[in-house]
TrEMBL record:
MF terms in GO: hydrolase activity
NCBIfam families reported for this sequence: GTPase_EngA (TIGR03594), small_GTP (TIGR00231)
Database matches in InterPro entries: AAA+_ATPase, G_ENGA, GTP-bd, GTPase_Der, KH_dom-like, Small_GTP-bd
EngA-type G domain segment(s): 4-168, 177-352
Name this polypeptide is given: GTPase Der
Entries under SMART domains matching the protein: AAA (SM00382)
List of residues binding GTP 1: 10-17, 57-61, 120-123
Job description of the protein: GTPase that plays an essential role in the late steps of ribosome biogenesis.
Keyword GTP-binding: yes
Amino acid sequence: MNRAIVCIVGRPNVGKSTLFNKLVGKRIAITEDTPGVTRDRIYAEGEWLGKYFTVIDTGGLEPENEEIIMKNIKRQAEMAIDTADVILFVVDGLEGLNSTDREIGNMLRKSGKNVIVACNKIDTPNFKNQVYEFYELGLGEPMIISGEQGLGIGDLLDEIVKHFPEDKDTDYDEDLIRVALIGKPNVGKSSLINNILGEERVIVTNIPGTTRDAIDTYFNFGDNRYVFIDTAGLRRKRSIYEDVERYSVIRTLTAVDRSDICVLVIDAAEGVTEQDTKIAGYAHDNGKAIIIAVNKWDLVKKDSNTHLEFEKEIRRVLGFITYAPIIFISALTGQRVDKLLELINVVNNNYNLRISTGVLNDIVNEAVLMNQPPSDKGKRAKIYYGTQVSVRPPKFVIFVNYKELMHFSYVRYLENQIRNHFGFVGTPIQFEFRQKG
Ligand code: GDP
Ligand code: GDP
């Protein structure tokens, strides 16, 4: 699903973080164990009137001297302009309008984006007159809120969702394969895109009339149609915020959200970094298919074992995505780039693979015969039957007598049995256990 993206901007201390927490409420979809993402809550999911969105708090950089603050604020605004469907510009109703607000306001106004001004800290109706000076920003009627008291939040959310693009859920065709190249700066993502697009094997297509064509690249390879998500960010090199890890992570996470298949690009010389682990964890938690591409393979001194050693190390660090195939490429020489495209096809097929209930239950029954489900305090787990309820990623519902007996290790065992028969290379498999009398 494509969620709309809401970015919160504003100078320090106007109440952005407070508002962020109010907007996303308790519905934090990023699971607690996504490494590194939750500690610093910059990114969370919200829902209002059945519309799903992602809120990004662009603030949170350490306030330093005036000059640095201004630079950071410009980065925030640029990032928001690039990424957001709706920009929420928070101003401080107690302090009033100042020159920094004006400067942010100018940038936002010029962008032509949907901007909502939220005049914060209006904790009582007595303060309402404070709001008038903010009309001067030329960004329409400011919404009156108090993030701390939770006042005006419902109206604000109404206004936010009003501005979501209509086609947010349907702006990609079903048969389009959506691929995100993810990985740290300098691992070779842009070179890879250029290599793929520079070759005659692909036909680059433009889809006119979509808002997405500016940032995504469409092309055909073989019988398939692809879109590489957010290629503008890769091809237009080094926008001013790209050097800030926080922003490159946000940018990557939003690309993951919009994709089906993530190609995690790793620099062979550097190996898997902590940021790679975070991003892979996020892709996995969100049920995305994953391919690991070890790039700059041309630079590696190799003997016959080198790629096996690399694989072993990657499996050790990224143990939670053992299903992800690993491919060694060079974006520079084009080595195995064709193979990568073929692999994307294979993984896409697996991501969409549906196995019949009959076959699934044959596998499950056989698995149960070989290895009985766990028992506890005289209760033995019993599996009645299973069925695949969805694809992208494949998800199985299994009916059992005692849900709580389905331990992680047994689920893993079932998963392996299914993979032994069907591979499902590149795609996560999800299970839901339902209790049946
Ligand atoms: P940020 O730097 O923009 O993220 O601002 P914070 O959310 O950290 O808030 C800065 C300060 O303003 C904190 O002391 C908050 O308690 C306070 N604050 C935030 N929202 C409100 C509000 O609605 N009313 C009042 N009176 N204070 C607020
Ligand atoms: P990005 O930041 O991930 O988009 O990385 P770039 O595509 O800008 O690449 C960063 C640097 O690595 C550039 O100097 C590239 O020429 C170089 N590079 C990218 N891919 C390869 C490769 O496969 N082999 C070698 N030797 N250099 C590469």
